[in-house]
Each structure stands twice: as structure tokens, then as C-alpha cells.
């Protein structure tokens, strides 16, 4: 062996030491990124940013929020599905990206919500509420149902877009009561609300955060909230079950996902960190103020089982609605 060769052989293990040290370093040893597949300022983005400070404190590393919007959240979701499963890229998925998109896109969906992701932790359950314009003359859900049944197809309802959780919730409502109404999809909840206040549509399906100020002012009348619990913003409004329609549900939810193949210890740790962040008093108070009810319980396995059931429940409703991604 020549002198140069001996020196190279001796230097090689030393050169590899930094790489080995990095490979064996405890996770996390760099910033953790959470992709939000929607634009900044929406409820998915806001809720994720509220969790980030506590998560960052617990992990001892920066938590970076990366907004990658487009195609109903599927662009950002697809990017995470293809990301390295090393514990440094996560997705704040929703019912839209992981359930409704399956029915809307069909085989064109660039990922499988169950095979390409690991469910880490649920974060928020956002109710959808049924609201009417006062000019309709109904004061409760029973009256609205009777009106729709007596006048098939006469009345129009608005949502923030075709194929969203509000639209699919409305379809489920009409299926449950055996009635017909005309869907008017808008390019977002803002334009829909404007027409709703003006009486251009008789009813709408959207979140309590959007409706509450107008319900309280008497400009709109919310008839029911379609989750098991009443809204903290409108405690006077009954749940659908209380209003005489047991079994009906309509909501959106958010939850943290990791690329398939992410190590189980990292998934377990992120589940713990997420749940702890949701329970932190100041953060919990902010969630209440925004009417974003947190889900601070559930293991990764329970969240995966929940997702599986959601797919079974909602994908047939999406397909029956005729809504597509275009």
C-alpha cells in the first residue's frame, strides 16, 4: 500500500463521521415543515399556525408552515405524498383532501389517502350549519323541511363551491329528508354570503363563524348545527338531532398526516406534540374564539380508522351528487 493510499484509507472513516453522526442524530435535528394545501388566511392555515408555536417549543426546532394551494388542496397533498418519509415533512390534510377528493377526482387523484399517507393526529372538527333568509318565513328546521318537501326544486341554496364539505353536507341533508332544491355554487363563501344577505338564495350551508354575526343581528336565521354539539358562537341554535333530524351530520375536519413510510416513533411523537399543543390553555382559548373545535384525543391508529370510515360514508354521497373537480 502506498503512502497516499494509506493516508486515504485512514482519512476515509474520518470523512464519513459527519454523515454517520447526522444519520444517528435524534429526531428532529432540523426544521419540521407542515404543508398547508390551501392559501394563507383560511381556517386550515390559521389553525395550523396557532398550533405551531407550542409544537416548536416541544420539538426544540422550528416548525415552518408551507402554503401550497391549488386544485382543492390536492397539489400540496400530492407533494407531501411524494416527500421523503424522514419526519421533516407533514401535511395538514382535511376532509376535502383526503375524503371528498376521492369522489371528485376519481382515478385522476394523484395520491391514495390511505396508502400514501400515515394518519398522525386529528386537530379540528368544524360544523356546517343550515341557515335560511328570514323572508322564507320558517323559524325552525321542521318548518324548512316541510317547505322543501311541499315545493320540490323551487328553492335555491348556496354554498362556497361545488364539491366542498358544505355542498356535500347539503346533498346529504336533502337525501335524508327526501326533498329537492337547486344548488347555487359560488367561488367562495364571501360571494355566497353577499347573495344570501340580499335574498338571492333562500338558504345556505356554511360554518358558524361565517353565519353567527348575521344570525345574532337577525339578518339570517340559523336553524341547526350539523354536529353532535352546539356551536359556541350560537348556543341558541340546536343541533340537527335536537331539531328533529337525528343521524344527520355535516362538517369539515383537519388533521396531520405524514408520508407513508415515516418511522412509527416519529409518528407517535408528532401525535403527542399535536395533542399537547391543542390542549395548551392559550391555544385552546384561541381555537374557541375562532369557533374551531379542537380534537385533542386519538392515537394514529384511531385517526386512520376514522379516515377509513369517512371514506366509506362520504365518497358515495359525493359521487351521487354529480359534483366533479372539472
TrEMBL record:
Domain of life according to the entry: Bacteria
This protein's UniProt keywords: Receptor, Signal
Family matches, as Pfam families: TctC
InterPro entries xref list: BUG, Bug_dom1
Endpoints of the signal sequence: 1-23
Family note: Belongs to the UPF0065 (bug) family.
Protein name, entry field: Tripartite-type tricarboxylate transporter receptor subunit TctC
